[in-house]
Amino acid sequence: MLFAIFCYDKPDSVGTRQAARPAHLEYLSDAGNRVKLAGPLLGPGENGGPVGSMLLIDAASEAAVQLFAENDPYATAGLFEKVEIHPWKRAVGTWGEPD
Fold first, then answer.
1. What is the pLDDT of residues 28-56, one digit of tens each?
2. Number of Cβ within a 10 Å radius of residue 41
3. Which sign, positive or negative, has the C-alpha torsion 21, 22, 23, 29?
4. Do 80 and 37 touch, CB atoms closer than 8 A?
5. pTM: predicted TM-score of the whole model, two decimal places
6. How far apart are CA 47 and CA 34, in angstroms?
7. Mind giving me the DSSP string for 70-89?
8. ∠ CA 34-2-88, rounded to 5°
C-alpha cells in the first residue's frame, strides 16, 4: 500500500537539514524501490527554501511507515516539528524523473 509522509521542519532549522542531508539521502537510497518519490517541500516565492519533506512510500502497514519515518536521519536529528502519514492512492498521472 502507498503512504504519503509529510514532514514539516522546525523554524530556523536549515543548518540541521544541511547537516543531516547526506545521511538522509543514504537512508532513502538504502530503502530501494519502496520509496517511490521524495523531495523537499518549499516555502512560498520563487526562491523559497525547504520547509519540510514529502515522501511517497510503499509499505505493508502504517506502523511500518511510522517506524521508517522515525528512523529517518532528519527525524533523529530533530529537524521536524510535525510528521503526518496518510494512506495514498494515485488517481491520475504517471511517475516521472526528478527535475
1. 999 999 999 999 999 998 888 999 999 99
2. 14
3. positive
4. no
5. 0.90
6. 31
7. HHSHHHHTT-EEEEEEEEE-
8. 150
34 pairs with which residues across the strands? none
84 grid coordinates: 503526518
If phi > 0 it is left, if psi is from -120 to 50 it is alpha, else beta; for residue 11 that is: beta
38 φψ region: left (φ > 0), alpha (ψ -120 to 50), beta (else): beta
* DSSP letters spanning the chain: -EEEEEEEEPTT-HHHHHHHHHHHHHHHHHTGGGEEEEEEEE-SSTT--EEEEEEEEE-S-HHHHHHHHHHSHHHHTT-EEEEEEEEE---S-------
